[in-house]
Design brief:
By secondary structure, this protein is α/β, with parallel strands linked by helices. The protein is about 30% helix and about 20% strand. The radius of gyration is 17 Å and the shape is globular.
Length: about 230
């Protein structure tokens, strides 16, 4: 069983390979990434301020930092080192990418209304209290800002499209199915949610979706992605 220390150690670098061809989800990882980048670029003028919380090796942050001022935060120092290297290779303008080593489950060390856009991608499933983190993201967002946030679907029927994700052992299939699509070794620290549960999280944090995408089988998506704004009562 994998424990939560995997995220703070460098071990998670070996687990998280979204763009490798052997990853059964690499095509929809690429599709989701393209939609996120397009959403930001189509709605935010160059020079805007972006927070990428739990952004790992900078798959979103590095390309966006060519046009925006991006703060990339992650629990893994090695992930942040890889992001800094990618930024240097991509000739990101000096000062456009700032990295912060922090735990997304803790209160964020930023003032209210600090960012025009906030990204929380492949993150909520790892958090013990995702609503608390979403509230922090709402706090640091400007009143007219937007949050892009995703969630893995706990209805496990999408597994049938990606059998290589689970392997061939029947017992492993049963445990993964019962775990809402979470592999057995991750079930103590990862939790997927239904679309309705995801929406409940957003409402609980005071944010509302204004646009949504889904990835994977049309009959049962692997991921939901929402573009959100703060709820104004």
């Amino acid at each position: 069983m994998i424990d939560r220390d995997v995220f703070s150690s460098d071990a998670y670098v070996d687990h998280f390979k979204p763009d490798h061809a052997f990853n059964p989800f690499h095509a929809i990882y690429a599709e989701k990434r393209a939609d996120i980048l397009d959403s930001v670029r189509n709605t935010l003028a160059p020079g805007g301020k972006i927070l990428d919380l739990g952004g790992g090796m900078g798959r979103m942050s590095v390309p966006l930092a060519r046009e925006y001022r991006v703060t990339l935060c992650d629990l893994s120092a090695e992930m942040l080192r890889l992001a800094a290297g990618a930024a240097a290779e991509s000739e990101v303008p000096a000062g456009n990418l700032t990295t912060r080593h922090l735990n997304a489950a803790d209160p964020l060390p930023f003032p209210d209304h600090s960012f025009d856009r906030v990204l929380s991608i492949d993150l909520l499933v790892h958090l013990p209290d995702p609503i608390s983190t979403l509230r922090e993201l709402r706090r640091v967002l400007t009143p007219d800002g937007e949050i892009l946030v995703d969630m893995s679907n706990s209805s496990p029927w999408w597994l049938l499209r990606y059998p290589g994700y689970v392997g061939k052992r029947p017992a492993r299939w049963v445990r993964t199915w019962r775990g809402g699509g979470v592999l057995p070794e991750w079930q103590s620290i990862v939790r997927h949610s239904s679309r309705s549960e995801f929406h409940d999280m957003l409402r609980g944090a005071g944010i509302i979706p204004i646009q949504e995408w889904s990835y994977g089988p049309a009959w049962c998506p692997k991921w939901y992605l929402a573009r959100c704004r703060p709820h104004v009562s």
